[in-house]
Amino acid sequence: MRTAAGLLLLVSLATAGCDQAQLLAPTKSTITVSAPTRVLPTGGSTEVSALVVEQAGTPVPNGTTVRFTTSLGRVDPVEAQTRNGVATTTFHAMNTSGVARITAVSGAATAASDNANVVEITVGAAAVSTVTLRASPGSVGPSGGTVELIATVVADNGRALEGIPVTFNADQGTLSAPTATTNASGEARTTLTTSQQTVVSATAGTKTSSNVTVSMRSGPIVSITCAPASGTGNCAAVQASSTNNTATVLFTVTRPTGSSTLRTATLDFGDGTSQALGNLAGGTATITHTYSGPDGSTARAYTATVTAVDINGETAAASTTVIVTPKPTPTPINVTITTESGTATENGQRWTFTANHTGGGESGTGDATIQQYRWDFGDGKGAETSGKTVSHVYATRTTETKYVVTVTVRTPDNRTASATTEILVSKFP
Questions:
Q1: CATH 2.60.40.10: does it fit domain 334-425?
Q2: Alpha-carbon distance 80 to 83, whole Å?
Q3: Dihedral (C-alpha) 300, 303, 304, 308: value to the nearest 10 degrees?
Q4: β pairing state of 179-181 and 165-170
């Protein structure tokens, strides 16, 4: 026979067993799982919710236990109790890329629709749908340079993916880093330094971008030639003028086919002066310049340099040398005087004098040009003429008289030479 105390013990044990039993969803209940995001970077996390509803459409009792499982990463907690029919857990993506299938179960509850009790979250590189690549700028100069490579990684819904490793590939040049991780905008960046045309691509997960070609830009090209302003030949030995000790030359500056479009070109003559040439849109410019000759017997050299800058800021230069040789040393001017006398009268005797010269030409050969003739007739009188012939009347005396006649010639550059002769003026009977 059971005693009252024994019955009380049995009731207490039964009650304790009921308190420890899980409350699960009843038959014909349905369960639906959802998450606010379906794409996560590795190491990311998101909340996962399970809605459990009885057949009548009302939420299951509070405290109904829902168990969560995942094929990738982890859920915490694994079991959660409902409140107003909803149980929540947190999915942690961990460090492995892939697709996580998170499933929720509770008692006899079934999916509200096909796979409604499962939510799929794509993790890391597995979420990559498209990789696009661009280079900024898209080319390098003729001597090479550096460009930035920018890969943009997005999911199939166009959402930018953060935290995705991207591998860059280049068939030429050097990458500052072969791999980079996308930022919040889905962009991963590295730099390429190259001196050749280079094909680059970027890979994230199983997706690879289209190839991008970093091309070589045409650079500025200029050339310069020099010729004497008169005569033929080049500027390796341009003789200074004996008149003003200068030499004038003619430069030809050319922008050949194949050059990039110029912004400016400047010709530095090498003597402290320069001239702007514009952008050489016509292809060629002709410039005349006059250089000073040497002071002594040693030639003077000048280096003329044309510098061009194109629209991309690239520069190029070309030079030529101009050598100005000393002006010629004129040959001596030789002067002679010829005389012709007239008849002596009581009024005097007319004499005609002609000054003839040879040598002294400006080029070092030939005859100099005479600008002025200064005459001293030896009788205290004189004359200045521009012609070489002059006449003078001498007073006649009762005795024959000798006179010394002098002529001094002067060239335009103030060189002079002289000659003298003696004459006998006849007496008047």
A1: yes
A2: 10
A3: -170
A4: antiparallel
Residue with tokens 């002769």: 421
Q: Which residues contact 283 (CB under 8 A, 6 or more apart)?
A: 254, 255, 256
Neighbour tally for 354: CB within 10 Å: 15
Task: Give the HSE-up count for residue 426: Cα atoms under 13 Å, Cβ half-sphere.
Answer: 14
Answer yes or no: are the C-beta atoms of 129 and 154 closer than 8 Å: yes
128-216 and 334-425: identical CATH topology: yes
Q: Across the beta sheet with 174-175, what order do the strands follow?
A: 130-136, 145-154, 187-194, 174-175
* Full-model pTM: 0.57
Look up residue 402 and give its DSSP letter: E
Per-residue pLDDT of the chain (429 residues; tens, 9 = 90+): 444 434 333 334 344 444 558 899 999 999 999 999 998 888 899 999 999 999 999 999 999 999 999 999 999 999 999 999 999 999 999 988 899 999 999 999 999 899 999 999 999 899 999 999 999 999 998 889 999 999 999 998 888 998 899 999 999 999 999 999 999 999 999 999 999 999 999 999 999 999 999 999 999 999 999 999 988 889 999 999 877 899 999 999 999 999 999 999 999 999 999 999 999 999 999 999 999 999 988 999 999 999 999 998 999 999 999 999 998 887 899 999 999 999 999 899 999 999 999 998 766 678 889 999 999 999 999 999 999 999 999 999 889 999 999 999 999 888 899 999 999 999 987
The CATH architecture assigned to 128-216 reads Sandwich (2.60)
Residue 193, class by beta-carbon neighbours within 10 Å (0-12 exposed, 13-18 middle, 19+ buried)? middle
The CATH H-level (homologous superfamily) assignment of domain 22-126 is Immunoglobulins (2.60.40.10)
Structural domain spans, the chain: 22-126, 128-216, 223-325, 334-425
Beta carbons of 134 and 212 less than 8 angstroms apart: yes
158: alpha, beta or left? (left if phi > 0; alpha if psi -120 to 50): left
Is 170 in contact with 198 (CB distance < 8 Å)? yes
Per CATH, the homologous superfamily of domain 223-325 is: Immunoglobulins (2.60.40.10)
Residue 119 CB partners (closer than 8 Å, separation 6+): 33, 34, 35, 38, 48, 101, 102
Neighbours of 342 (CB within 10 A): 14
